[in-house]
Design brief:
By secondary structure, the protein is an alpha+beta fold. It has helices at residues 13-17, 22-34, 49-57, 63-80, 235-245, 257-265, 274-285, 308-313; strands at 105-115, 118-128, 131-139, 167-169, 174-184, 189-197, 206-209, 212-215, 223-229, 323-330, 338-347, 350-358, 373-378, 383-393, 398-405, 414-420, 424-431.
Length: 439
């Protein structure tokens, strides 16, 4: 939905002829949106929100004043729809210091054990202060003829859902299985993990799982971490590119036109500028749902600015390598945010990174805070864009799976994972040459 409704946001011509007033602009847009029965009011996602954030980025209105307009029209929309109760959008909390991430020790297993009537590959164990996470891969029936393999299909099942396994380490510590999850890859496998609680000895040489002993290897991929400054851009330009890189809460690519029209009305950008031309060229080639991307017909990516040209050049490719790399990479604080990359799993359609971040930057932020973007780049000149697929949130941060597209170039020897915050980016540089085929 385009809440601005076309050129000039569909507002009266006289509004655009007088001195621009951002609050008046938002309130007139809100009046138009009141007539839209399908307006999206999910949590903090008022249809006014992105336009308001654009005007805040341009310095034409303060964040608190803009949020009062959003709250007014959230309530008015509820009343106009004759729904019971009132909806108030309290401003989302600003980023706060979530405390430092605790380093974890990852141990490689890569050993098959019997489970039920089949075999299960134990991949690795990530040890934390109060337990750990044990990752596995389960072989299922082969996909039917003609079925296309996909790395990120829906979960198929959890191997130990009926009776959790008994687990003890080489030092006699007994662990409790708290929960488990699994997700199919569409090619006859399920990747999953068990959440463990208890003490795991740092010097443990093996685990015994339902009577089967598996060795623990502390081998991890080579990686380096650093903090770099982001390219110097104006606040409005950085805002627009960032909003294109970060999907909406629903997973859809952000429609930039309502934002651009508001900024044009405010005089914050010029219609004939190269920035707007580049933005619109890229947006026209972006998939509507980036994490479920498909090739788009026609159109060359050669003229697109980087990193977008190389990102879209491989759109729809399914030649990614099958491999898993275990990491123990923890970045310093970057603009108040800390990032940990624990593993990389690549498949034909893309790759996933098991991550932790503190504080939680995955939800809706304040109007004057940029959403965090998750990029990656390799040594072949390719770029990749990520978004959270699975996540769990705590008071101090979040952890889960970051899914990247398109497929990883099979010729790549190095991969940089980039967490782009405000003025700086945290980088985890990983050697891919230490990866081994795990299928």
């Amino acid at each position: 939905m385009n809440p601005a409704g076309g050129s000039g946001a569909g507002l009266p011509r006289w509004v655009l002829m007088v001195a621009f007033d951002a609050e008046t602009y938002l309130r007139l847009l809100g009046e138009r949106l009141l007539a839209d029965p399908d307006q999206d009011q999910h949590r903090h996602r008022s249809a006014l929100r992105d336009v308001a954030a654009a005007l805040v980025a341009a310095g034409t209105i303060g964040a608190e004043q803009a949020w009062r307009v959003i709250d007014d029209y959230a309530t008015a929309t509820r009343i106009r729809a004759d729904r019971p109760g009132f909806v108030h959008f309290g401003p989302p909390p600003r980023r706060r210091n979530g405390g430092g991430l605790v380093p974890r020790q990852t141990m490689v297993i890569e050993q098959e054990i019997p489970v039920g009537a089949g075999q299960l590959l134990l991949r690795d164990l990530a040890v934390t202060a109060d337990g750990g996470r044990l990752r596995y891969r389960q072989h299922l029936e082969a996909p039917s003829s003609g079925q296309r393999a996909r790395l990120f299909s829906r979960p198929v099942g959890f191997s130990w859902r009926v009776k959790p396994p008994e687990i003890v380490d080489s030092e006699g510590n007994r662990l409790v299985v708290r929960s488990g999850s699994g997700g199919g890859d569409g090619d006859g496998y399920v990747d999953g993990e068990l959440e463990l609680r208890g003490t795991i000895a740092p010097e443990a040489a093996w685990l015994e799982i339902d009577g089967t002993r598996v060795g623990l290897d502390r081998r991890t991929a080579r990686s380096e971490v650093r903090i770099d400054a982001l390219e110097d851009r104006s606040p409005v330009e950085r805002f627009l590119w960032r909003r294109l890189a970060v999907p909406e809460w629903s997973g859809l690519t952000t429609d930039l036109e309502p934002l651009i029209e508001a900024l044009l009305a405010a005089g914050a950008v010029d219609e004939g500028s190269r920035v707007l031309s580049d933005l619109r060229d890229v947006e026209a080639r972006m998939p509507r749902r980036p994490l479920h991307q498909r090739p788009l017909p026609g159109g060359s990516t050669r003229c697109l600015v980087e990193p977008w040209g190389s990102l879209l050049r491989r759109l729809g490719r399914d030649d990614g390598p099958d491999c898993t790399l275990v990491l123990d990479a923890l970045t310093p604080s970057c603009d108040g945010v800390q990032f940990a990359a624990n593993s990389i799993t690549s498949g034909p359609a893309g790759f996933e990174v098991e991550f932790e971040v503190a504080p939680n930057v995955l939800g809706v932020g304040a109007l004057d805070e940029l959403p965090v973007a998750w990029w990656a780049r390799d040594d072949r000149g390719n770029h990749y864009l990520g978004g959270p697929a699975d996540r769990s949130i705590s008071d101090n941060g979040a952890q889960g799976t970051m899914r990247y597209w398109p497929a990883l170039d099979p010729r790549a020897k190095r991969l940089d994972l980039l967490m782009c915050v405000d003025s700086y980016q945290a980088i985890v540089s990983v050697s891919l040459e230490s990866g081994e085929d795990s299928r």
